[in-house]
Automatic annotation (TrEMBL):
Pfam families (UniProt xref): M20_dimer, Peptidase_M20
Organism the protein comes from: Alicyclobacillus macrosporangiidus
Family: Belongs to the peptidase M20A family.
Annotated GO MF terms: metal ion binding; succinyl-diaminopimelate desuccinylase activity
Enzyme class: hydrolase
Keyword Zinc part of the UniProt annotation: yes
Superkingdom field: Bacteria
Protein name: Probable succinyl-diaminopimelate desuccinylase
Length: 416
């Protein structure tokens, strides 16, 4: 096995230009979601794998959303799944980018563009590592599958859960190539509680406000202020989570500065969309808020919904609260799981640095694997500060490191 490990690392170094070119090419596909159309990038991936003799199965969740499955190994034994998504968030105002968002330009040690960190750097890594293992005829005692999904950024309903719920693939472990820090894969995620708040008012001529009419937008403003108190909810942290939570908070504080790690044991709240009114001179009769909260270990998402309702009542705001988008509780894969141990060992082997798993402040597709009894963690190259922002980029060095980690993890997990 040591000989194979040395060979694999050497080959990734030798072919690193090909890996970076692959990442750059993936970024050049404008796979923004919404609107969501994975066909062009999916065809490229299918052709790329075919060059290495790897056949890809296509499962259409819709006419424009293609899920791809490809497997090497096929011997009896364990089954490791490498998962990545092809969609990216919209690039936004093009003029705000220093480098065009779909250029895939390689400059100053970085690959630039929308999706570079989230997550085409990781996607390139799992594609490259799998193709290389197959090309080198590495003897795997089990199966390694690529699960490439088209829908993650808008809730993922046509991606990972669509595939798993239909029984199209199952496995003994999974790794998602989502962005992380270089030495800290994420082994657990907060839960999600997205909801809409619908507020009604009474219309009137705008020139008569506030003497006439009852503005739904003003009521919604009071609702926004009231909902900020969700942060004050106190979770009952399970004893087994306290150590990993402390490690994760310290990691976040070091990564972001200040006390940002506090989000891990609080309910975060973001009122991301406010829609109300019909015309500037009409008192608005309706306002809708879309609210994103993330739920820590020790609270259920239903607890957050109930508290939101109570806060609005206490604030004197009559409103309808209805679930929207993500709903689910915090979940994790314990560090004792073999796939966690193998990937952490691979990081330390490649980097020479201490590595350990941490909890993530957001939610992810990992919850779907865990719901199907598949231990899973996330690891991928990233510049965390640029994710979903202008001038997103990813380090060339990190992309290469992650590809090595993916290859070595598959080698050790499927030969143990």
């Amino acid at each position: 096995m040591n000989r194979w490990a040395e060979t694999i690392v050497h080959e990734i170094e030798r072919r690193s230009d090909d890996l970076i070119a692959l990442c750059s090419r993936l970024i050049q596909f404008p796979s923004e979601n919404p609107p969501g159309d994975s066909r062009e990038i999916s065809r490229f991936i299918i052709d790329y794998l075919a060059q290495y003799g790897i056949e890809t199965q296509i499962y259409e969740a819709s006419s424009t959303m293609w899920n791809l499955l490809a497997t090497i190994g096929r011997q009896p034994g364990k089954h490791l799944i490498y998962c990545g998504h092809t969609d990216v968030v919209p690039a936004g105002e093009r003029s705000a980018w220093a480098v065009p968002p779909f250029s895939g330009a390689v400059q100053d040690g970085y690959i630039h563009g929308r999706g570079a960190s989230d997550m085409k750097g990781g996607l390139a890594g799992i594609l490259f590592a799998t193709a290389l293992l197959h090309h080198l005829n590495v003897p795997l005692s089990g199966k390694l599958s690529l699960m490439i999904v088209p829908d993650e950024e808008t809730g993922g309903h046509l991606g990972v859960p669509w595939v798993l719920e239909r029984g199209l693939i199952t496995g003994t472990a999974a790794v998602i190539a989502e962005p992380t820090s270089p030495y800290n894969p994420t082994i657990g995620q907060k839960g999600s509680c997205w909801f809409e708040v619908v507020v009604h008012g009474t219309p009137a001529h705008g020139s008569l406000s506030p003497m006439k009419g009852n503005s739904a937008i003003l009521k919604a403003a009071r609702a926004i202020l009231a909902l900020q108190k969700l942060w004050e909810m106190k979770p009952d942290i399970p004893p087994e989570m306290k150590r990993i939570l402390a490690l994760s908070k310290a990691h976040m504080n070091e990564l972001h500065g200040g006390d940002v790690g506090a989000v891990l044991d609080h309910v975060s709240i973001n009122v991301g969309v406010v829609q109300g009114g019909t015309k500037v001179n009409v008192v608005p009769d309706t306002c809708v808020l879309q609210v994103d909260t993330r739920v820590p270990f020790g609270l259920a998402y239903t607890d957050v919904l109930e508290e939101a309702k109570r806060l609005l009542v206490d604030a004197g705001v009559e409103a309808e609260i209805r679930p929207y988008g993500f709903q689910g509780n915090a979940n994790w894969t314990p560090p004792s799981e073999e796939i966690v141990q193998r990937l952490v060992e691979a990081i330390m082997s490649v980097s020479g640095q201490e590595a350990y798993g941490v909890l993530q402040w957001a939610s992810s597709d990992a919850r779907h694997f865990r719901a199907h009894g598949i231990p899973v963690l996330q690891y991928g190259p990233a510049e965390i500060a640029g994710i979903h922002s202008y001038n997103e980029r990813v380090s060339v060095v990190q992309v290469i490191q992650c590809a090595k980690v993916y290859a070595l993890t598959a080698l050790t997990y499927l030969t143990a």
